[in-house]
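Form P-L/3: holo structure prediction, ligand 4-(N,N-dimethylamino)cinnamoyl-COA.
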Amino acid sequence: MPNIQVSALAPSTQVIRFNRPHARNALSLALLQETATALHAAQNDDSVRVVVLTGDDKAFCAGADIKEMSNTGIPMWGQSERLLAWKTLENFPKPLIAAVEGYALGGGCEMTLLCDIVIAGQNARFGLPEVKIGAFPGDGGTQRLPRAIGKSRAMWMIMTGSLIDGPKACDWGLATEITPAGGALARACEIAQTIGDMSPIAVRMIKEEVLMTYTKSLDESLSLERKLLLWQTHDHNEGIAAFLEKRRPVFSGR
Ligand code: DAK
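OUTPUT (holo model):
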């Protein structure tokens, strides 16, 4: 049985669904690699404008596969296949939306931190419980969580392994929006469709620029943003023309 299912739920939106329900969608190396392969394909497919990551009603993803850890021990953390798969997620240039129902724990929560927008069902539970197995969230969680929700809340979550529910995740800025239980995927696809109608080149630039916040100083990122003023595209001309002509723009991605 494949560890993920890839489908198009709306034109221009690709949905990657984690498919290890017996293990609460834990991130086996195979699941991680299949996800990376699907993302590579989506990156190279112009018809895909937005990717939605999702799980099932019980779990988005319960984190690294603890049963695999007991097979391979500590060296698994440094496995190049594992690190490369995480890099693929981190460097994915198109919008990534997480639709979370149930548990998003450990690596599953770290994955949502790499998504650009996170839609959580009312029953969602977010947490970084690695401390309970004598570890720490080593796929970016110790760095990205405090940037997302602030130091004190991040310390509390990471040091105690406590989970927070969807509404609190939304209140703290870990999730973008909350839906009734079972509604996260539909809402994520709706947002994906809205973004999919925009100029893909503008959306890509926006993602790149916003993410500079986390990697560069303000001076450097502001000057890079200013340099982008020199950037001109057909889509920009088309957007202006469509506004003036009171019609919907037709973006080509050039
Ligand atoms: N791995 C493997 N199997 C898992 C799993 C996981 N993370 N989570 C759940 N399962 C399996 C359970 O073992 C159970 O299998 P069977 O017993 O049926 O064979 C099945 O899924 C159903 O689980 P439960 O019976 O427990 O179901 P519940 O609904 O009652 O509870 C739960 C669901 C997700 C709350 C619970 O299963 C749970 O607490 N799971 C563990 C969650 C967790 O601890 N996640 C963090 C994993 S560590 C690094 C260092 C560390 C890390 C990364 C990098 N570096 C140094 C680079 C660590 C990363 C992690 O993510």
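COMMENT: The mean pLDDT is 94.
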